[in-house]
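User: I'll paste a sequence; please echo it back and then give the predicted structure.

Assistant: Echoing your sequence first, then the prediction.
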Amino acid sequence: MKSKADLVYDNLREAIVGGGLRPGERINMDELARMFGVSKIPIREAVKRLESEGLVVSRVHSGVSVAEIDRHEMRGVFLAREAIEGLVGQLAAENPGEELVTELDRIQARMGEALDAGEIDSLMGLNSEFHGALAAASGYRILTELTEQLLVAVRRYRIVAPVDDMNWRSVLAEHEAIIEAVRRGDPEAAAAAARAHTNSQADHEIATQDDTVGA
């Protein structure tokens, strides 16, 4: 059973990652305590965890606020993703099980349905499920944890650089290439498809920055 601090942490983390709490927004500790019906102790514990993850910042005279998004650091995130996703794809394809392929197909189909229905808000979560399933299939806990951390950073970045309909369709096509390589049990092709997918998303990020600068 989760502690009060864990429940507060989970809710705050999702609000930050999902954009419910915007970058730079102040976090009112008293209001949170009232909202969750807890004392300030579990609130402080949750905030400390979020601060260690770089999701909030705490300043002596300014209180606690949601961390701003550092565009320079996001380049590092995409570079790290290229390395991690390539390795994850390779390992997943080395011993592909029917269960993994079925799960990837299921998530892929759900993403396609959500996109066709205009349910854009659900796509980031489904995308995280897709990459989480691949990471879990790698067989290494550290790769699963790193994948999750990187995906959290990407979800945060998409608050200021959202993915449009056309880009999501590219994501689905890139996912399909990964799935097919895993289905064939081709580690080299899976690694290449995963890296190509990450590079494609990095290109979107660069284009978004250029648009912002030129605005």
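The chain has a mean pLDDT of 89. The CA atoms of residues 135 and 165 lie 26 Å apart.
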